[in-house]
Amino acid sequence: MKAGELIDEVGELLGEDFTYSPLWTKAEILLDLQVVVRMFGELTNIVDRCRTCLVDYTTGEVIVPDDFKGLYFGQYSQEFLDLVDLNETEFLAEAWIADGTGTPQGLTTWGSGDDAKVRVIPVPTTIEVPGGGGTGVASVLVSDGASVWTVTCSEGVLISTLAGATADAVQVVYGYGSYWDLGITTDGELTLTASSSTTASNLVLTDIAGDGREWAVTAELGGVLQTDLGQWGPGVCTGILVSESGVDTYQTFNQDEGIVVDVYATGVSTSPEHVGKLSDDYGMVQYGDQYLGEATLWYKGLPKDVHSLYTELEISVGLLPVIKHGLMSRLLAKDGDGQDKEKSKLLGHIFLSECFALQDTFGKRW
Amino acid sequence: MLVSTVISNIQNTLQTTGIYRSTAFVLKGINEALKLTSYLTLYDERKGSLSITGSRNVTGLPVDSDDAPMITPLYVANSVSGNRVNPVRILDLELSNENWEGTISGADSDSYLVLNHVHELEVELVCSPIQNTGTVQLDLVGAYMPVDVLSTDDISFPEQYGEVLYYYGLFYAYVSIPGMVKECLDAYKEYVRLIGLMAQDSASRFPSSQGIKPVPVEFDYDGINRYDMDGRKDKAVQEVTQGA
Fold this sequence. Notes:
Helix content of chain A: 10-25%
Shape of chain A: flat
Shape of chain B: elongated
Largest interface: A-B, 66 and 75 residues
Structural class of chain B: alpha+beta
Number of domains of chain A: 3
Oligomer: heterodimer
Number of strands of chain A: 21
């Protein structure tokens, strides 16, 4: 279900039709939904992920995904590594923090949220070369009609600087069934205008940090530029295949529901040589085992963040009532004519009780 | 149990069939109750099967013939031999079979774990070892999430807990009416009491500590709510008194 559909349902329950003088606007409900979804993830602990990630070749730190919460199993080059706490790392390698290289013996983790780190100890001698095998380009040259700008990407942020070279062919950006020409104003602001083309350029930019991360440039609904961090793996991926859960038939990947089960270098095979690169992955990637010089993290994750009314909520419809209870609790607490503190408190309590019950049932790993 | 009967009972209690109490609105509440209850009690147990082709350790869960998805397995066995596959922690997979991921063998699977219950399409069964002699065939008893029902349907729901749908439907309606906190609370309390019994029933069928078992929702709100309501009442009385 999309965020907007859930908000409509909550609106129906609150008697809010979002037309004249609404007590709650969709925009403010969206912000509350963001918070509730994150709280749900934190309180239930039922989101698990498995990702193949690059290891930084100077620090030995794994570049953790942005939905990372806590590690419970880690591998390097197909081998399981002991997960040890910070105080026991010296049993793995003395003076490990000085970045000596060797054969990885274990993993440790520190930090939380966006600052979470997972460190391979010691720094592996053999490591996947950053950027190797990726499809991204370092930059793209875009003309504003008079000057040419170099567009690069850092941490998902597109940066334009005056270059003075010859512009590349116009990049066609795809998103939500529509195609957009990438342009730029004389002030260096990137723009999207409806394209006459129906073939996307598949623009992928390599992060200027030089750590191998790659960002797919796509469009949100209405032609808003966005970047998605690709899950990185060696090899060139020419197709992504998905299967409906429990049905072993393959179909072309589309961004609806479904889970990505296989990503192959080429064609269909049951023994892939490489993992692929996904610009927007759904759920757990099921076949990321054939890799060398990289880490695979099995970790406790967070639900996919809600960005817009069109964001697909990757939460079961059976669990969405819990989200509704939490969301209504927040909305009824707001100042205004719709305020109902007692019901807000009751629904808040219900939300917490249901989250804890789900955590007790599903959140444990025996 | 006829859905139309549950709807009528709810509408009779609400004493209206008007807007937001229409059959369609109440039916939404019942469907919400069916799905939420399936997660909180794991009551909808059915048998399913699964084939795993290739050296794949991780696979999705089956979908039943009526499109109801399995949300978690409760018992797993190899189809041909009948040998049980036991639930373990992910670390135990490594301890029992080093470098288990992608490693194939001629033996039956002996261990499994389930990850990512957040979405029925994303929940994953991880099992080891994987056979190289053919397709791994597993039989499972699992908890499913029922599909939406229509008002004309005759649904499969434990008769003795039929009021679960009634009380959640009432709660769903009362939430949409400004005020009515006491009615909301009473309906939800009764719903939680009944699904607590359902969860205990489900859990008692699997007395060992292995695998996933439903844990009843702990909901204790009386004290706080009464205190607040009484406090507000006192304050209101005080204001009226002072005003007078």
